[in-house]
Amino acid sequence: MYRFLLSRQWVIITLVALLLIPTMIRLGIWQMDRHDERAARNQLVADALAADPVPVERLAAPGDAVTRAERYRTVTAKGHFDTDDEVVVRRRTNGDDEIGFHILTPFVLDDGRVLLVNRGWIPADGPSQTAFPEVPAPPRGEVTITGRLMPDETTEASGIKDLEGLPDRQIMLVDSEREAERLGARVLGGYVAQTAPEPKDGTPQRLGNPGKENAALNYAYAIQWWLFAAAVPVGWFVLVRRESRERTRAAVEEADAEKSEPAAAQPAALGDTPRSR
Q: Where is it located (predicted)?
């Protein structure tokens, strides 16, 4: 009854089903790995944001990279802003997806080292963005600021191309080593996204808190792939049963058709033969 499974068509169907099962199981495992990675990153961010503020000198130093565990840590710094060497970071958006600039201002610490401070977002004056925009002034004199420690930006991490030939005092990416060369100073690695003190008149706009990655979505995808893997043998069995029933029904119908055909003409009995003339 199941000899049709040896046909070319059903051998191919069976092989495809056998390949789909481990493939879907592996895709589910991959989605679970993605879930664990995202959940771990979310936990790192939550731990960093919940940690007590520390002086920036305890976490950052010239030439050192900001680690994953240090990212988003709240830090404090005491010194003064150097607006003469201020630059703006091009093609940055706010929460409403308006295009503008981030203001990057050197902050000179008491020991002479420099901390790069992203003071926030301002809108662009026009579509060309060729002229240096009008930038709100920071507090004058010595001040203590608070912010989130961030690593240097790269094209690989941000997807932003580091273009050349930009207008004066405009950059594409925040790079502490490059800024150290431009300023001729000892610049701490990474930068700080300022959160306090609050700007006058609400400008520049402070950068928002980091969002959480949707790890639950990867968990749902993993369950989905495993359900698909479990459905493959069930679907294969249903197809086999249906094929078997159809073949059995076809065989019965063929047999019934043969029985219902008229019987072949039988030779007449000798006593019924007509008389010879």
A: Cell membrane; Membrane
Strands 170-171 and 87-93, by their bridges, are parallel
Which residue, among 169, 141, 148, has the nearest Cα to 81 in the 3D structure?
141
Instruction: Residue 51: name the closest of 43, 41, 61, 62 by CA.
Output: 43
pLDDT of residue 265: 46
Q: Quote the DSSP letter at residue 122.
A: E
Residue-wise DSSP of 105-151: EEEEETTS-EEEEEEEEEE-SSSS--SPPP------SSEEEEEEEEP
Start-to-end C-alpha separation, the chain: 60
Locate the domains of the chain by residue range. Answer: 52-202
Predicted model pTM: 0.73
In this predicted model, what pLDDT tens digit does every residue of 236-275 receive, in sequence order? 999 888 888 887 787 777 777 777 765 544 555 555 555 5
